[in-house]
């Protein structure tokens, strides 16, 4: 049978093209540590079932521990003949134990093994992603706190809308990331189901103990249906959704930094360590971190849609199509763990130019709402107040000036409802202070949010 796990009924080995198509060891080899964990749990169960005696169990566990070591040190190289990670590790076991190495396969199948391995891998790596996300949240909150009272233009439709505290802009990203963390935690609850014991699809006639194996591997429970156990890839698809949405959040954050660092905005200067130059234009300093993050959101979305397309229409239970589940998942994890530290570094080291943002804050008649709100406080219906404030804007626009240029003498000509008191609300800082409703942009509210986000982050 060569090194294969399935040679008995075949007169010949696979054609070279068949073997090349079938092979997954070049990418699933990274599941080896998780496969070995599951193997140790399975060995103990075989022992309790009376299928391995105490001496055999001892030798089996010692060989698995040795394999863990060589795998960790990079000393265990899969060969071209190893179809997948399970084949490679069984070979390693047989090389160490002889025929005893062949006993471990009793009662399990690669179908329940691979589903278990991938869940273990993902649960482990989701925790790493949450940790890396925490560093980015930290960096955002630090800057948000420092800029909690810095006036800046606020946009809708990328047009000046109303002034906001810039810390409010930064903190909004931290909220999106907090939801991502929450989503991954919630995902983990559903991922914490062990497929091991399902065998190929129907369970096992051997007296195994799937619940004990589940507990040993840190799962909350064993799968309740063996067919579902080997065909369910919801955990992978759902993880990829979490990763894709996180990617979308990071991309939107990246886009804003690109805008802020542009000459037209001039709000931010990126640190040299987190920007790049041009091979032809000596003056260039480009926001490549932000752009790469924006770009990589595309591959995260692609991974999700690719896996959903793979799963759609698959009959139950295991089908070889499912081998396609791993690469998008690995790629998503690798992408996030690459992108998050760079983004955290970029955010932490960006310098913002308060004076530029503050000077731009009232531009574009951004205080027009203050005029309308002032009238409302005096009893004018908002519908009419809106018209009057609009008339102020038109009056100023026709003269090429801003609302701050309005003088007491101009007001009666615009509307009899206006008097000199209204000029007091045409103040950026006052306008921001005044937006003190819960969740509003008043600096005190921004500090409150930052405090709550920090507390949630440190409670993790
Ligand atoms: N390499 C396979 C996968 O990734 C492992 C399971 C193989 N099972 C099988 N019946 N061929 O899905």
TrEMBL record:
GO terms for molecular function: argininosuccinate lyase activity. Its EC number is 4.3.2.1. GO terms for cellular component: cytosol. It catalyses: 2-(N(omega)-L-arginino)succinate = fumarate + L-arginine. Pathway: Amino-acid biosynthesis; L-arginine biosynthesis; L-arginine from L-ornithine and carbamoyl phosphate: step 3/3. Keywords: Amino-acid biosynthesis, Arginine biosynthesis, Cytoplasm, Lyase. Residues 15-302 form the Fumarate lyase N-terminal domain. The keyword Transferase does not apply. Residues 365-433 form the Argininosuccinate lyase C-terminal domain. It comes from the Bacteria. Its main location: cytoplasm. It holds the Pfam family ASL_C2. One of its GO terms (biological process) is L-arginine biosynthetic process via ornithine. It is found in: Cytoplasm. Belongs to the lyase 1 family. Argininosuccinate lyase subfamily. This is Argininosuccinate lyase. It comes from Vallicoccus soli.
